[in-house]
Amino acid sequence: MDLKLKLRPSFFFYFLIYIFLLQKADLGSAFNPKCISTERKALLTFKQSLTDPSGRLSSWSGPDCCNWRGVLCDDRTSHVIKIDLRNPNQTLKIFEYHDDHKEGSLGGKIHPSLTRLKFLSYLDLSSNDFNFTEIPEFIGQIVTLRYLNLSFSSFSGEVPVSLGNLSKLETLDLNAQSFIDNDEAPTSFTLRASNVGWLSGLSSSLTYLNMGYVSLSGISETCLQDFSRLSNLKELYLFNCELKNLPLSLPSSANLKLLEVLDMSQNSFSSPIPNWIFDLTSLRKLFFQFANLKGSIPSGFKNLKLLETLDLSNNLELTGEIPALFGDLPQLKYLDLSVNYFEGQIHRFLEAFSKNKGNILVYLNLNHNHLNGTLPESLGTLRNLQILDLSLNSFTGSIPSSVGNMVSLKKLDLSYNSMDGEIDSSLGKLEELVDLNLMANRWEGVLLKPHFVKLRSLKSFLLTTEPNRSLVINLPSTWVPPFRLEKINIENCQMGPLFPMWLQVQNKLNSVTLRNNGIADKLPNSWLSGIASDVTELILANNRIKGTLPQNLVFPKLNTIDLSSNNIEGPFPLWTTTAVDIYLHQNNFSGPLPLNIDVLMPRVRRLYLFDNTFIGEIPSSLCEATRLNILDIRNNRFSGSFPKCWHESSELYYIDASENNISGEIPESLCDLPDLTLLHLNQNAFEGNIPKLYPNCVHIEHIDFSGNNLNGKIPTEIFDSSFLRILNLSRNSIEGSIPQVNWKFGHLETLDLSRNRLSGAIPQSLVAMSFLQTLNLSYNKLEGRIPKNLKFKDPSIYIGNELLCGKPLPKKC
Ligand SMILES: *[C@@H]1O[C@H](CO)[C@@H](O)[C@H](O)[C@H]1NC(C)=O
Ligand SMILES: *[C@@H]1O[C@H](CO)[C@@H](O)[C@H](O)[C@H]1NC(C)=O
Ligand SMILES: *[C@@H]1O[C@H](CO)[C@@H](O)[C@H](O)[C@H]1NC(C)=O
Ligand SMILES: *[C@@H]1O[C@H](CO)[C@@H](O)[C@H](O)[C@H]1NC(C)=O
Ligand SMILES: *[C@@H]1O[C@H](CO)[C@@H](O)[C@H](O)[C@H]1NC(C)=O
Ligand SMILES: *[C@@H]1O[C@H](CO)[C@@H](O)[C@H](O)[C@H]1NC(C)=O
Ligand SMILES: *[C@@H]1O[C@H](CO)[C@@H](O)[C@H](O)[C@H]1NC(C)=O
Ligand SMILES: *[C@@H]1O[C@H](CO)[C@@H](O)[C@H](O)[C@H]1NC(C)=O
Ligand SMILES: *[C@@H]1O[C@H](CO)[C@@H](O)[C@H](O)[C@H]1NC(C)=O
Ligand SMILES: *[C@@H]1O[C@H](CO)[C@@H](O)[C@H](O)[C@H]1NC(C)=O
């Protein structure tokens, strides 16, 4: 009863509000602001001088300009108060070129009719493309403006001083970064300000100023004074402004007490961190990365009690210890000191955070410094930390067990240190961890199930140790881990001999590197076919993987496949793959190569098949694999003749087919390969003449035809190339004399003609070969005196020529 009485009045109350709202809606439409016709005309004139390829201003035609897209009128007075023509398709991927952005861009001329909008307080023309025209001077006449955004719009020239007349302006964004691709954009800075005295006109209104990428190189050394008098300023962005002088103090007139954000990054100051920064006690964010700052971190930072973000990265020369004072800054969330020269230990620094129990640090990047010592247990007090990057330092020891308390951690990077202890199992508690990089250290010990047990978010797991350390990964064969990895890189660990079960259930992998981990098992077919569609890297080299490979898989995204140095047998895998690098060498593959190898592997650049037992002919379809650079099929059992179909569009520069059983003539079409520099066909069964490789094959630097059945004479043209450095024709049946040519121009370093049937005298002109370091003429039928000035004194290079005489041989002439 009592309850009802209470309810009723409130019901009526809400009903009344409902009625009121209905009426309000009616009234609203009745009093819809009607556009003022002079302003409508001004807007139309403004529109007409713009270019608008994507039709963004197509709504700018009806009578009521207050309904036009991007136009806002005052409810009461109907005056246009806001124009927002920011390109909606802005992508902040500044270094990429996006057609989408260009599509949505307005361009052309900004018409002075804008000055007729006497109540305009907000103008946003950002992210458009004004094709490097100047910012119009008359913008300074729209004195009602409070917000002006001309950023990312490809303006150039001098920033007009007339902006100093905008005495109500609160926000000025002139950020001159450009979306336009580099071919079109002028290479130097496009927008510049050689004088910023006009800022004084804005000194009591401006709260936000962005002049990023505006060249200030022309302004005087005291320019910062002009900025420092903006007494209401909360955010100041002067990144990449070609500033060179950072004053060590500011004048007493400086008044930046309200400044919350200061970005002076990407300038080249060559100076220490100045002390006036520490008077800016309202600072929340300070950016000084890539600023060429030097020296150590001043204690003054302790004054900046509100500091949330500090980026001093990439100054290279900031040095000294990382001070403990950061631990006392109660608001600090983001600290980036990476790529500097900080040294010593981080114990005291972290200790300070552990005393400050309420620390809210989220991001800590100390990568690429000279820090050393062990990682202290106090690390565990960073309970809010999400990103921790300590890579590329000289830390030693093991991972402290307190790491398990860093419950917010998403990314942990300890790579490229000298950590030589164990990896603590408390790591396995980090449920949020996505990215774990433990590469390039000297880990040892055993990783067991607890190390991984709760890592349900893990996507990337990188772990390498040195080959002479013992790091074992030993997980129960029936255990299904809670993570599905996308990237795995484990090297020099012991995770065999069986192909681990926990790995077999990883079916989302796109990058796999498992090198030298003692896996002595077959590759599980279901695993391989499961990841085939997404995998880009498949590197399983230096294990003892055995068995045959499944056939007919399709790898549509593969770049690199490396199965080298295993015990894989059976035929060449008939895989259709986009791989560029294919390493199958040092296995026990057998059988012939597929005839359509160019179709199966249309993008292959490097094909390494050496040290296997492939048989049959080398398929001539390799001539059509026009991207092929390197073909190494040495030490197999290929036979038959060598393909003759080589042609100009091939990029082959390295052919090693030595140690096979290839017969027939060496095809002269090899010289149609424009880039060929190395040709090793030694230890085969080639016969016939030495091909006349020159003058076509001008780039061959290394020729090895030794150990074949070649006969006939040495073609003199072979020495015409100034590129030839190594020529080995030994162990053939070559006849005739050593050609008398002008050796002076050659760069031959090694010439081996031993074990042939060469006759006649050693030509005197050989003396002129200044680059020659190795010569062997032994076991031929050469005769006469060894030229006196020939520098080679080892008799073994002349022996076996019975009619040869003179030093260094004992036989006198
Ligand atoms: C913005 O880009 C999308 C495609 O990403 C396109 O459909 C749309 O038309 C673009 N808008 C403008 C205004 O150009
Ligand atoms: C100015 O416009 C750009 C994008 O066009 C935007 O990212 C930026 O935040 C704007 N500046 C201000 C101060 O609103
Ligand atoms: C941009 O300006 C250049 C001259 O500075 C001109 O050649 C070019 O046609 C202009 N591009 C557009 C799209 O207006
Ligand atoms: C600022 O406005 C005044 C008064 O309208 C004018 O005389 C002066 O030329 C303007 N200054 C600039 C730099 O445009
Ligand atoms: C750590 O670095 C400091 C400063 O470079 C050096 O003096 C110290 O010897 C190093 N300690 C070790 C154990 O390498
Ligand atoms: C272990 O191997 C690394 C290189 O991988 C080498 O620098 C180090 O000296 C080796 N240590 C021992 C004890 O052999
Ligand atoms: C290589 O495979 C052949 C059979 O194709 C086999 O006879 C030989 O033992 C294998 N060699 C090795 C080292 O596994
Ligand atoms: C080399 O090939 C020839 C046929 O071209 C064959 O008769 C011979 O047995 C092969 N030699 C070896 C060692 O395989
Ligand atoms: C030339 O090739 C043979 C093998 O066919 C090799 O024994 C010899 O060392 C090579 N000569 C030089 C100078 O490398
Ligand atoms: C020259 O060749 C012969 C026969 O191949 C070899 O025995 C001798 O060691 C070679 N001399 C040098 C210096 O390599």
UniProtKB/TrEMBL annotation:
Q: Which domain of life is it from?
A: Eukaryota
Q: Tell where it localizes.
A: Cell membrane
Entry-linked SMART domains: LRR_TYP (SM00369)
Q: Name one Pfam family in it.
A: LRR_1
Keywords, in A-Z order: Cell membrane, Glycoprotein, Leucine-rich repeat, Membrane, Receptor, Repeat, Signal, Transmembrane, Transmembrane helix
Recorded topology in the membrane: Single-pass type I membrane protein
Listed GO biological process terms: post-embryonic development
Q: Which residues form the signal peptide?
A: 1-30
According to the entry, every stretch annotated as the Leucine-rich repeat-containing N-terminal plant-type domain falls at: 37-74
Q: Using the UniProt record, give the first listed, main subcellular location.
A: membrane
- Looking at the record, the residues that make up the Disease resistance R13L4/SHOC-2-like LRR domain are 327-504
Identify one Gene Ontology CC term for this UniProt entry.
plasma membrane
Tell me its family. Answer: Belongs to the RLP family.
Kindly provide the name given to this protein in its UniProt entry.
Answer: Leucine-rich repeat-containing N-terminal plant-type domain-containing protein
Q: Which organism is it from?
A: Eruca vesicaria subsp. sativa (Garden rocket)
Q: What does the organism's lineage look like at the top?
A: Eukaryota, Viridiplantae, Streptophyta, Embryophyta, Tracheophyta
